[in-house]
Amino acid sequence: MRSATRKLFRMVGFLAAASCAVSAHAQPSQVQRGEYLARAGDCISCHTANGGIPYAGGYRLDTPFGYLLAPNITPDNETGIGRWSSADFYRAMHDGVNKRGQDMYPAMPYDFYTKLTRADSDAIFAYLRTLKPVRNAVDINQLRFPFNQRWSMAVWRELYFDEGTFTPDPAQTASWNRGAYLVEGLGHCSSCHSPRNALGGIEQSKAFTGASIDDWFAPNLTSNLHTGLGEWTAAEIATYLKTGAVAGRTTAFGPMAEVVTNSLSHLSDADLAAMAEYLKAIPPNSSLRTGKPAPDASRVRGATLYMDHCGGCHQAKGRGIPGVFPPLAGNGAVIAPDPANVIKVVLKGLPQRGAYIPMPALGGQLDDQQIADIANYVRTSWGNTASPNSTAAMVARLRKDNR
């Protein structure tokens, strides 16, 4: 059975490449563009069960934590995306949040899809809306506890997800930037060609250096002369992507042969050349792809405490749930110069206010340093730029305050 890691990374794997291919010709309609993007991305393979109706979902996606069933993405109102708007679709692709406001599982690789432009997302959605609606309810979540609980995704998101549309590098050529958009964004090359840790996050220091997947090995894509593409020319790489073979080099087989057949062979020569140019630029240590800066110990503690005690309600990225749990990202009380409000709320909780449900006091569960770490974490995360000036001594003083 092909895993979620490979199948879903391929699902929209080269949508961006297709978009660049289309733009080189007369501008098609939005639906035509979206159809081309979906065909190039091989969406049908992930969203079609074996022997099932195209795009109606049900394909099994295996993960180390159980399995998921790919959803129905036909425009059926009850079981598909018929009630979705283009904004809902873009939120799923860009933010990894579904129409119900829930964190999506990273088997849907929104950590790469986030680079998708809004125009490309809208085009794909416009095409999907033209499909024949198919009523097919899919019970997506077949993961083991605790991974079958949506709140558990807060851990993964906090550690491995940074949202943001691709931004071209003005110091590079247009073709290099196009290649970067394809390879680093929706091309998802590193998703299969990089080793992952126990939680499914890419080991950033080893990105593009090769990885085992589905009992196959996705080879090194860096410019390493011995194990990578160092001796290949850009033209040879482009030819391989287009045809799956380069005389005197190798022939595609296993999962890569399917990628070539269903996705890469449909791309324009200009897109393939751009991808090849970017791949040739990846140094042996894959330093072109950098992860998050290593956080200090107090921030790691704060993140862990937040995910254990706060993330289930206030959600990953501190976005909250409208009308139920307030957001922490951009919250004026959170980013005030003095952290006293945050500390006191964590210590003593809050009563029900309007539609917002009560917040329990955590002072009896957490010590002074832990509360200071949480306060500093929420004040400096998700775009919050307050000073991390909470201290254990400050918490101890406020703990004694009965007001």
List the helices and strands and how they pair.
Blueprint: H1 4-11, H2 15-23, H3 30-41, H4 43-46, E1 60-63, E2 66-69, H5 86-95, H6 110-113, H7 118-128, E3 141-143, H8 153-160, H9 174-186, H10 189-193, E4 211-213, E5 216-218, H11 234-243, E6 245-246, E7 250-251, H12 255-262, H13 269-281, H14 297-309, H15 311-314, H16 340-348, H17 368-379, H18 392-400
Antiparallel strand pairs: 1-2, 2-3, 4-5, 6-7
Helix pairs in contact: 2-3, 2-9, 2-13, 3-7, 5-7, 9-13, 11-13, 14-17, 16-18, 17-18
Helix content: 40-55%
Rough outline? globular
Helix run count: 18
Give the ordered list of helices and strands.
HHHHEEHHHEHHHEEHEEHHHHHHH
Strand order of the largest sheet: 1-2-3
Calculate the terminal CA-CA distance, rounded to whole Å.
Answer: 60 Å
Characterize the main sheet.
3 strands, antiparallel
Kindly provide the radius of gyration, computed on alpha-carbon positions and rounded to a whole number of angstroms. 23 Å
Number of strands: 7
The structural class is mainly alpha
* Unreliable runs: 1-26
Strand content: 5-15%
- Overall pLDDT confidence: 83
Task: Report on this structure.
The protein is mainly alpha-helical and 403 residues long. Among the domains are: 4-160, no CATH class; 297-400, Cytochrome c-like domain (Cytochrome Bc1 Complex, Chain D, domain 2). Helices cover 40% and strands 5% of the residues. The protein has helices spanning 4-11, 15-23, 30-41, 43-46, 86-95, 110-113, 118-128, 153-160, 174-186, 189-193, 234-243, 255-262, 269-281, 297-309, 311-314, 340-348, 368-379, 392-400, and strands spanning 60-63, 66-69, 141-143, 211-213, 216-218, 245-246, 250-251. The strands form three sheets. The protein has a three-stranded antiparallel β-sheet. Strands 4-5 form a two-stranded antiparallel sheet. A two-stranded antiparallel ribbon has the order 6-7. Helix 5 (86-95) crosses helix 7. The longest helix has 13 residues, at 174-186. The radius of gyration is 23 Å and the shape is globular. It starts with a helix and ends with a helix. The relative contact order is 0.10. Residues 1-26 have low confidence and may be disordered.
